[in-house]
Amino acid sequence: MMKHCLQIILATAIIFVASVSATAQKTMTVGQYRRASYDKQVKQNPYSVNYKSSDVKSYGVFFAEYNPHTWSYDDGRLSKTESNYHGISVGFTYFLPLGSPLGIDAGAKVQYLFRNKTEQEVKNKFSMVSLTAPVSLAYDLLLSESFALHPYAGIYGRYTFSAKTQKEADERRYTENWMKNDHPMGGMKRFVAGWQLGASCRISEVFSFGAAYWMDFSKVTDYDKLRGFNIMLGATF
């Protein structure tokens, strides 16, 4: 009887020692606990210098652009390209990720396109005011904590409010309204769509700069088609 009791006590002791050993292996040291607690705080604290987010976030950009562009003339007999047209735009764009770095860019900008030219002692001042709304498929590539590359491609729609040429010769001045149907070029179309391809860079989630190439799908008059570049500088929000 005594022998049987000793066997039971010995088996219980062995089980108890094994249980304590296993628990000890799973128990964190004080240093391990502090490190795990710190890592958790860093991960959840967006103000930490070591904070890293695995999610691509939406953001916006207020920007100004320089828009050098050309007019391509083609009436079926004569084709030529008129350069030295300029433009200035101000607007905004907003990036909305689709659950990944791939997302949608959309925005709007007011454009002022112009050119001053003198031919045969006649001064020509062309000006055009329009509203452009681009929509693009974009990819937000985070290359480091302070630098991101943002390539995009998409389409835009442009609505023209006014377009005119002021001519001055022999101290006489008169204005041609391109929006009238009886204009020699057939009148300016109010709405024109086109495509764009470009990329921007974002620095420290504060500044953004980039460039893009764009071209209208159709002619803006009976004979003219526009294409050009956007050179952008903006601030993120």
Description of the molecule:
Mean pLDDT is 82; it is low at 1-6, 16-27 and 42-54. Strands 1, 2, 3, 4, 5, 6, 7, 8, 9, 10 and 11 form an eleven-stranded antiparallel beta sheet that branches. With 237 residues, the protein is an alpha+beta fold. The chain contains two helices and eleven strands, in the order ααβββββββββββ.
Brief sketch in words of this structure:
It is built from two helices and eleven strands. The protein is of the alpha+beta class and 237 residues long.
Oligomer state of the chains in this structure: single chain
Secondary-structure content class: alpha+beta
Q: Given the C-alpha coordinates, what overall shape results? A: elongated
Q: What is the ordering of alpha helices and beta strands? A: HHEEEEEEEEEEE
Q: How much of the residues is beta strand, in percent?
A: over 45%
How far apart, in Å, are the first and last alpha carbons? 83 Å
What is the percent of helical residues? 10-25%
Continuous helix count: 2
Low-confidence residue ranges: 1-6, 16-27, 42-54
Mean pLDDT: 82
Number of strands: 11
Largest sheet: 11 strands, antiparallel
* Rg from alpha-carbon coordinates: 33 Å
Compile the SSE list and pairings:
Elements: H1 2-26, H2 30-44, E1 59-66, E2 69-74, E3 79-97, E4 102-119, E5 122-139, E6 141-142, E7 147-169, E8 172-177, E9 191-203, E10 207-216, E11 224-236
Antiparallel strand pairs: 1-3, 1-11, 2-3, 2-11, 3-4, 4-5, 5-7, 6-7, 7-8, 7-9, 9-10, 10-11
Give the key terms.
237 residues; alpha+beta; 11-stranded antiparallel beta sheet; 2 helices; 57% strand; elongated
